[in-house]
Design a protein that fits this description.
single chain, 18 strands, 7-stranded mixed sheet, 2 domains, TIM Barrel, alpha/beta, Urease, subunit C, domain 1, 4-stranded parallel sheet
Amino acid sequence: MRSLKISVCFLFLLSLVLASGTMSNLAAQYPQRGPDRVYAIKAGKLIDPEKGTTETNQIILVRGRTIEAVGANVPIPADAKIIDLSKSTVLPGLFDAHTHLCMTLKKNRDGSSYFFTTLLDSTPYRAIEGVANARDMLAAGFTTVRDVGNAGNYADTALREAIERGLVPGPTMINAGRIIAPYGGQFHLQPEKRDLATPEYAFADTRDEMLKTIRENIHYGATVIKIVVDDQKYIYSVDDIRFMVEEAHRAGLKLAAHCWTRAGGHNAAEAGVDSIEHGQMMTNEDLQLAKKNHVVLVGTDFTEKAARENGAPGLHPVFVDRLKRAYQIGVTMAFGSDMIGYVPGETRGAMAAEYVESWTEAGVPAKDTLRAMTVNAARLLGVDGERGAIRAGLAADIIATPDNPLDDIQAVRKVFFVMKDGSIFRSE
């Protein structure tokens, strides 16, 4: 018996030693924060998206994760590493306020199928897919995104936490968790297979269910609440939506409302949601109501290619028309792509940046498009005190392009330098 006790003790001590060694090895593999690096970026042209202006020959001093100083005569410390962008245009990192990083549309014999994709791809696969898409979005200059669901069973929360801990590269993420919707969500189900829409959606038809699903999402790591207002014959009423907005706000979260129909867009605008997603069928009256109630429009304005690859062929002219009307009315807008399609040879980030073509087609000036991609989106996401501008005290999310996007917004499709939180991710 005594020898047995000694053996057990020995095995226990051995397991502690092995565990300690394993933890040491793991610690060596994961990024460890060292002394703050100092960078001095020489910017030939520096854009202020808020003002729509360009300054020349500026110095941006970055210490650690933060911008320390900006100006023409900023002293450069002896230990600073100089980044020479004197022949380029420098601006804050871009925002995409409507992404689905943990989903890529698959095609079956009938073409692109969102339902088909969600049935085939497990949550672990979706998380890995999210890692690849997050990397590609960052490489394209999108340093902050809002991910509005379609991530299985909280793959988006896992991705956000992995990015925040430095395990994988990616943009700052605001994530929605499971999408809250009336019964059926965006699918039409079979009575024999009632569970096929879960965990993609959390069905909520009563006030108790609405309350519970919002709190469950927050518990499992959602940092924004996303609802589907319509997509069924029965839709959320103004009072339903207002109830969910108030519950989200009590917890300090904003609420985004998917609206694919005219009635859905009207109800969301009247209820005063934080943002309407899509809203392509909104009338001028609905857009005026959104403006009055300080609702931000995230229009996901599909190009012809995006409409085709996202499984919505023919909708490009509808989106451009609504975008044009919304701009003329003066609705506050934030850039969002909703890109879920796959095009061989193109990355998710490159396809998202292509959406500026729709803004140009709608007649939106470059300065206002860039504002939608930076300061407007930063305010909507609630990070404007941290990101969205190049200013002392803000996070060092900085990108560079060969040409000035204020002269031609297509320049944002040619990002060649990306700094995220003071670390260089891409430099060519």
